[in-house]
């Protein structure tokens, strides 16, 4: 796995790490079962604090992209990852719809309309 960060970017380093790993998973560079480098190893390669990489890995796990298997390491998740990411996106949308004061019916109508836009 090869990652590079943009030191001049306004995007925080943990978000850059997370985003680049997601991009590699989405484009097939990182396939299911691929072991990610240990937190300290990747932090050293990127000249970051270990906590920065650990935060990126934690957020990737919460979003369903990877799973941590204790001392065995962190691995790219398999086929169920798409469903987990979809569920996370749905939760985010539902929270936004509530914040905007949309009814359930209005929110569902918006999703249906968006799905038809291909």
UniProtKB/TrEMBL annotation:
Domain of life: Bacteria
UniProt entry tagged with the keyword Transcription regulation: yes
Keyword annotations from UniProtKB, A to Z: DNA-binding, Transcription, Transcription regulation
Entries under PROSITE patterns matching the protein: HTH_GNTR
InterPro entries noted in UniProt: Tscrpt_reg_HTH_GntR (IPR000524), WH-like_DNA-bd_sf (IPR036388), WH_DNA-bd_sf (IPR036390)
SUPFAM superfamilies on file: Winged helix' DNA-binding domain
Any Pfam family hit: GntR
Domain HTH gntR-type: 11-79
The UniProt record lists the keyword DNA-binding: yes
Protein name in UniProt: GntR family transcriptional regulator
Lineage of source species: Bacteria, Bacillati, Actinomycetota, Actinomycetes, Micrococcales
